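= Tokenised fold =
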Amino acid sequence: MWQWLYKLGSPRHFYEMTSTFLPWLTFVTYFLLIVGLVWGLGFAPRDYQMGDNYRIIYIHVPLALGALWVYVMMAVMAAMHMIWNIKVADMVAKSCAVVGVSYCAVALFTGAMWGKRIWGVYWIWDAKLTSFLILFFIYIGVMALRSAFDSETSASKAASVLTLVGIVNLPIVYYASVWWNTLHQPPSRLSLSAEGANPPEIWIPVFFTGFGLIGLVFLLVILRTRNEILWRERRAQWVQDLVKQELSRA
């Protein structure tokens, strides 16, 4: 196992390994997203209270949870880079920041659309919403730190420190609606019975879109990391050979 992890830390091995399963990951991701979105937006029953307005959960909820899990991944990679100085870990962390801030932005937008329809306002300084907005700004701060230094080493260290400090906000985001009396509803209870608060025909499409958006996270992070590897290792012989092979095919 340690030998496999050691190889995974090699930029060349990471690039070659991801080339083998990237097509499969792409297929599964798009399959899950298409099934989940078509099922949820087109065929799931209307909610007896909110009508069709509730369908935004098929996008908003997986995006919001995805933004949290991307941050966890980014924090793990930042810790690995600081402790063991693994170059690929820093490249993955850098890629996670871009994907995470994108998920945050769309989750905030869809949440505002939900709030306007259900609460009558686009935004309120609710504990859940405010802590999630802070998460969005932490992502931006991490990206800004990376671009503020001329040295890649200094930039990665500064971004890693901010990433690890920002972890304290994650439990606040997740449990805010449980710890405090917030306007945002607490986590919903899933039930296998048709009489449950969220019967299977409502929440099963959420699982499809949820796993699809998780797959999209890995897909985007891998693609951006591969690009980062090619840029940082552009002077390596194996990258130059790869470019020559691609040019010969073209």
